[in-house]
Design goal:
- It is built from six helices and four strands, in the order E-H-H-E-H-H-E-H-E-H.
- The protein has about 180 residues and is of the alpha/beta class.
- The chain has a four-stranded parallel β-sheet, sandwiched between helices.
- Strand 3, helix 5 and strand 4 form a beta-alpha-beta unit.
- The longest helix has 18 residues.
- It is globular and about 40 Å long.
């Protein structure tokens, strides 16, 4: 798992985030897997890209989940920069023999409709071009819920602990297909 604060359990109790819940789900399903959460709060696609090679060498994963890009957008980094980094990470993981699940993000409406659509499109393009699996929106059912404020910490960026089972339910179907 290569991600940012949304996967690194920012602001919630350790072992209560969606990645820890994924590990529990795998055990409950009888799937022998070791989940390595290499997520870092604040990470960008360039940070993930710079760390990925060493992680692939160290862990030799069969599957890599990439959940990065939101911090790129929040910092106003060029969209092409984000797309290039996601492409390079996807290809590096595949070259190392791993199946890739790309986890998409969407930007709040205050970033503008055009920017939001172009940002969201990055994940679809990278997944399609590289034949990677895709979860279109990590926070579906959380950020777009009618009462979404109750699912977020005071910063309105990071989900509360009770949102993480919803997040896992967004990721699990696509990941389960890759595990077969």
């Amino acid at each position: 798992m290569l991600g940012d604060s949304l996967s690194a359990e920012y602001g919630i109790a350790r072992s209560s985030g969606w990645v820890a819940l994924l590990n529990q789900k795998l055990q409950a399903e009888g799937i022998p897997a070791i989940v390595v959460n290499a997520s870092i709060s604040g990470d960008t696609t360039s940070g993930g890209r710079s760390r990925l090679g060493a992680l692939l060498t160290q862990h030799r994963p069969t599957h890599v989940v990439i959940e990065l890009g939101a911090n790129d957008a929040m910092r106003g980094l060029p969209l092409q920069f984000t797309e290039d980094n996601l492409t390079q990470m996807t290809q590096a993981a595949q070259k190392a023999g791993a199946k890739v699940l790309l986890v998409g993000m969407q930007m709040p409406p205050n970033y503008g409709k055009d920017y939001g659509e172009r940002f969201t499109g990055i994940y679809e393009r990278v997944a399609k071009a590289n034949k990677a699996a895709l979860v279109p929106f990590l926070l579906r059912g959380v950020a777009d819920a009618p009462d979404s404020a109750r699912l977020f910490q005071a910063d309105r960026i990071h989900p509360k602990e009770e949102a993480h089972p919803i997040i896992l339910n967004n990721v699990w179907p696509a990941l389960k297909k890759l595990l077969k």
